[in-house]
Specification:
heterotrimer; A alpha/beta; B alpha/beta; C alpha+beta; B: alpha/beta; Rossmann fold; eight-stranded mixed sheet; 11 helices; 37% helix; globular; C: alpha+beta; Alpha-Beta Plaits; two-stranded antiparallel sheet; two-stranded antiparallel ribbon
Chain lengths: 388, 297, 82
């Protein structure tokens, strides 16, 4: 059944369809309507979850972690400052190996205060051992939350996952989307069986204190789980396609890349704009393509290398900047595809920060720059001249 | 013929790594005896987080979840919600935290959980400083005490936070103080708490030999003196009604303070001032007991 | 790869904390009335009662803190150098 929904309502609907048992969340623009819709559905009885209106995001994630430790399927959502406040608990969730799914509405960070789209909040969590998806449509948000549970709860993964959507472009914009049939969702997503469920029938401790002779192996276990997640992502997508008749292209869906002279790697709502720009440039005789980075963690090394094998120039658009040598996506793409044996020319473009619109003209400019020039390594696109 | 005044079964194991004479271990031991095996405990960073020993050991015969330092209140809320969601109704959820993790960094999370009416028991074992990290002052450190961050020349200049007052301001059904020197009183209060739904809170004094600077064999004696000198009154607030559960002892504050190295530098003037405050607070407590008895009929 | 990372279930009693002692408690059962105060106040659960309520020290784990000697009202326990 198709209906109009915002990205936020896609999150709440997916949480309901997934039969989430515990939701703990704290309000922050532009996430608020996710939680408000969940509250309405809980009040009406159509979503029989325990709903905890906690007093901070830090507490929200701890409450989810503790609920997950006794075997409940959990959900939370946040944005920007709230995600930053949760940072300690993000490490806790992956370290404890609990399969929480969290909606993140990508919003730039303060100061100065802003409520607009930018990926700094979730990119700043790339070290925390969470699976990260970036969606470009509300349909994708809904489907991806369901896929995320399936992936996160796999016994060889057991990692938390975040499903990111751009502030306002998705969170508050209505798009048509198909609502999956609830029975089919139950087939796709059976009840959570959490192997380390704490129970009085078999008392144990979960957390502990680990001296140097064991800690490293625990961290390697998390890394192995991420690798396993990378292998499972296409299988989960295939299963989703079989069940619901659609998928979203795996970790790195490509468009017009087969014979491209330059490919733009981009995440989030800039991707459909980039595809429209690529079509227009093709009509003007340029051979360009778009590779959407849908999954940032685990980073799709194999897919990226396969793309790079036949593309001479790769431009990477970062909708965040973390003060390294280029943006985070640029660093990881370049690291994956370049070696002493060779690789494409990879250049980074920082754009769209703080909600600066990624209009077709900006993206067209990036493509043309990437086609014509070999340097610099990093360019800030669309930056205004500030009076000195 | 045995005359056990508290339940016999042990749900805490020996071989834990607590200092000899640790008061905090007795808090846990009595807590679990009273609540029994259908209990789940969540513990933040504190002495008790490391006492079990390294992975894969545990000193508890009940399930035990480590949680973040700030977040014990949120952790008990999550445990309760998760158990309720899975239809497990007869397991008691307990948050067990030190004073630092409760009155300072954990205060927001505790307050939130109390305000939301969490159906769980929160136990603060109070050794009056951040002991696990080596005796730094907390909001629960008493006035005048030496700690490593309030060393001689700059000893603690602020009063101990009255956490019972903060907790009772949330209108929870049950809150009580307890001392390891009076395990029967603690157990009775826990049994009362177990029969109530909603948030229940315990403030338990747990003397610490290295932190308070006294020989380990005096732990129980000091826990008793604290009560009998009215420095740590034993009382409960049951649905708003205050009840003192051990009447005024005859000991002076000086008797309690002079045995502890952390107070060795106090002058007679300072000790008199402490006595004055103890007398004042006791009078206030008696007044609350009388007033709430009248209000609650 | 373990199916239950961080699942800890070994009892802490594997640690023989008796090695920490510098003094050991000796119970004189002739003076003991089985009031169980020593059992009650041991922080290390290192005093065990037999079926008739007579206390015995678990010397593998007793840390020698001396609380039992201090609390015994009958002076039936004395701490001796280890």
């Amino acid at each position: 059944m198709e209906t109009m929904m915002t990205g936020n309502h896609a999150q709440s609907l997916a949480a309901k369809l997934a039969r989430v048992q515990v939701v703990a969340a704290y309000p922050i623009t532009p996430q608020t309507t996710i939680v408000e819709r969940i509250a309405e559905m809980v009040a009406s009885g159509e979503f029989p979850a325990q709903f905890l209106e906690v007093e901070s995001e830090h507490s929200a994630l701890q409450a989810c972690i503790s609920a997950a430790a006794v075997g409940a399927r959990t959900y939370t959502a946040t944005s920007s400052q709230g995600l930053l406040l949760m940072h300690e608990l993000l490490h806790w969730a992956s370290g404890l190996r609990v399969p929480i799914v969290m909606g993140v509405v990508n919003r730039a960070v303060a100061p100065p205060w802003t409520i607009y789209a930018d990926h700094t909040d979730s990119i700043a969590q790339r070290d925390t051992g969470w699976i990260q998806y970036y969606a470009e449509s509300n349909q994708e948000v809904l489907d991806t939350v369901l896929q995320a549970y399936r992936l996160a709860e796999d016994a060889q993964v057991l990692l938390p996952a975040m499903v990111c959507e751009d502030a306002f472009y998705l969170s508050h914009t209505f798009e048509p989307a198909e609502v999956p049939d609830a029975d089919l969702v139950d087939d796709f997503l059976p009840p959570l069986v959490y192997p380390s469920t704490l129970t009085v029938d078999d008392p144990a401790r979960l957390g502990s204190f680990m001296p140097p002779d064991q800690y490293m192996e625990h961290r390697r276990g998390i890394a192995d789980a991420m690798e396993h997640a990378a292998r499972l992502i296409p299988e989960v997508e295939a299963e989703y396609m079989r069940t619901f008749g659609r998928d979203h292209g795996g970790a790195l869906p490509t468009y017009l890349c087969d014979d491209a002279d330059a490919v733009l790697v981009v995440s989030g709502t800039a991707a459909p704009t980039a595809r429209a720009v690529a079509r227009a440039l093709r009509a003007d005789g340029y051979r360009v393509g778009v590779a959407k980075l849908r999954v940032f963690r685990p980073f799709p090394v194999a897919a990226m290398r396969a793309l790079a094998a036949h593309v001479p120039r790769v431009a990477v658009l970062d909708r965040s900047f973390t003060f390294g040598f280029g943006g985070a996506l640029f660093q990881e793409v370049r690291n994956a595809v370049q070696s002493p044996r060779g690789g494409p020319l990879v250049r980074g473009f920082v754009a769209g920060l703080g909600g600066r619109d990624l209009v077709p003209a900006t993206i067209r400019g990036i493509f043309l720059d990437a086609l014509a020039k070999d340097e610099p390594d990093v360019t800030w696109a669309g930056l205004r001249e500030v009076p000195g | 013929m045995t005359r056990l005044t508290i339940p016999e079964p042990e749900l805490m194991t020996t071989g834990h790594l607590a200092c000899p004479g640790c008061g905090a271990t007795l808090v846990m031991r009595y807590l679990l005896k009273a609540l029994g095996p259908r209990t789940i405990v969540t513990i933040p960073a504190c002495c008790w987080a490391v006492m079990s020993g390294p992975f894969p050991r545990t000193a508890l015969k009940v399930p035990f979840l480590d949680c973040a330092f700030e977040a014990t209140g949120a952790s008990i809320q999550g445990l309760r919600a998760g158990l309720d969601a899975r239809g497990v109704k007869d397991v008691t959820v307990v948050g067990f935290a030190g004073d630092g993790g409760t009155v300072d960094i954990g205060l927001q999370s505790l307050s939130g959980a109390l305000e939301r009416g969490v159906d769980a028991i929160y136990v603060m074992y109070d050794n009056e400083a951040y002991m696990n990290t080596g005796i730094q002052r907390s909001g629960a450190t008493p006035w005048g005490a030496w700690t490593t961050t309030t060393p001689l020349g700059r000893t603690k200049a602020q009063e101990k936070k009255d956490l019972m007052a903060i907790v009772t301001a949330h209108h929870i059904p049950y809150a009580a103080t307890a001392s390891i020197a009076f395990p029967e009183d603690f157990v009775r209060k826990l049994e009362r708490a177990k029969s109530i739904r909603g948030p229940r809170f315990f403030h338990v004094l747990a003397p610490c030999p290295p932190g308070w600077k006294y020989p380990p064999e005096e732990t129980v004696k000091l826990a008793r003196l604290a009560v009998d000198a009215r420095i740590f009154p034993l009382y409960e607030v049951d649905h708003g009604r205050y009840r003192i559960t051990r009447r005024a002892g005859k000991k002076a504050a000086k008797d309690y303070l002079e045995d502890q190295g952390r107070f060795a530098h106090l002058t007679d003037v300072e000790i008199s001032e402490i006595q004055r405050r103890v007398d004042e607070r006791w009078a206030q407590l008696e007044f609350l007991e009388k007033a709430t008895a009248e209000v609650h009929g | 790869m373990t199916t239950k990372p961080l699942w800890a279930q070994t009892p802490s009693s594997v640690e023989l904390t008796g090695s920490w002692r510098t003094f050991r408690p000796i119970i004189e059962l002739a003076k003991c009335t089985r009031c169980e105060l020593c059992w009650k106040f041991c922080p290390d659960v290192a005093i065990v009662l037999d079926g008739d309520g007579w206390p015995a020290i678990d010397y593998e784990h007793c840390k020698g803190c001396g609380i039992c000697e201090a609390e015994c009202n009958l002076r039936a326990i004395r701490m001796e150098p280890e």
